[in-house]
Design a protein that fits this description.
With 179 residues, this protein is of the alpha/beta class. The protein has five helices and five strands, in the order βαβαβααββα. Strands 2-1-3-4-5 form a five-stranded parallel sheet, with helices on both faces. Strand 1, helix 1 and strand 2 form a beta-alpha-beta unit. It is globular, with a radius of gyration of 15 Å. The two termini are 14 Å apart.
Length: 179
C-alpha cells in the first residue's frame, strides 16, 4: 500500500487516528505484517503543506505525484507479481489523482495497480486516470465540505475517516484478491 497523507499531517501515515495509520493497522491485522508492505510518502518528497499556505499545494502535490509514480514503477519492475494499492486522504487524494492521470498512457502500470482508495477527496467525481472504476473506492463523509462542497459544514466530518478502516481494508483486500 502506498499512502499519501492529508494537509498538515505528519509523515508518513499521519497521526495515530488518521485514515493512513488506522488503515495500515487494519490491513496488517487482517493479513499479517509479513504479507504487506506499507509505505507513506516521506516529508522530504511530499510536505503535505499546511492549510495556511494553500498557494504551495500544486507544487507539493506534484512532488508527491512524482514520488508515487517513481516508486510504483520501481516496485512493478522489482516485484511484478505483487499488488499495489494507491491510497490518499484529502490533499493526498489529490496526489493519487495526479499520479493516476500522469500514468494513464502506461497501460502496463495502470493495469498492475490493484486498488485505488481515496478518503475525503477534493477531486471526487473526477477520473483517476485510466484506472478501471471497479478498482476505485471513494469514501466521503456526510457534511464533509472538502468532498461534498454543497453539504452543510461540519468541521469534524473531514477528520474522522479513521472510523472507516474496516470498510477501507475490505475494499483494498477485495481488489487485491481480484487482481
Amino acid at each position: 500500500m502506498r499512502f499519501a497523507r492529508g494537509t498538515g499531517a505528519p509523515a508518513n501515515f499521519g497521526d495515530s487516528g488518521s485514515p493512513g495509520s488506522v488503515l495500515a493497522e487494519a490491513l496488517s491485522s487482517k493479513i499479517g505484517q509479513d504479507k504487506i508492505a506499507l509505505q507513506g510518502i516521506g516529508a522530504g518528497f511530499y510536505p503535505a503543506v499546511d492549510v495556511n499556505n494553500w498557494s504551495n499545494v500544486p507544487n507539493d502535490t506534484k512532488s508527491g505525484e512524482e514520488r508515487t509514480i517513481a516508486l510504483a514503477e520501481k516496485l512493478q519492475a522489482a516485484c511484478p507479481s505483487s499488488k499495489l494499492a494507491l491510497v490518499g486522504y484529502s490533499q493526498g487524494a489529490m496526489v493519487v489523482h495526479q499520479a493516476t492521470n500522469q500514468i494513464q498512457g502506461d497501460t502496463s502500470l495502470v493495469n498492475w495497480i490493484s486498488s485505488v482508495l481515496v478518503f475525503g477527496d477534493p477531486s471526487i467525481g473526477q477520473p483517476l486516470g485510466s484506472v478501471s472504476t471497479d478498482k476505485i473506492h471513494s469514501i466521503c463523509h456526510t457534511m464533509d465540505q472538502y468532498c461534498d462542497p454543497s453539504a452543510p459544514v461540519d468541521p469534524t466530518a473531514h477528520t474522522t475517516y479513521g472510523e472507516n478502516a474496516d470498510e477501507a481494508a475490505a475494499s483494498v483486500l477485495g481488489q487485491v484478491e481480484l487482481a
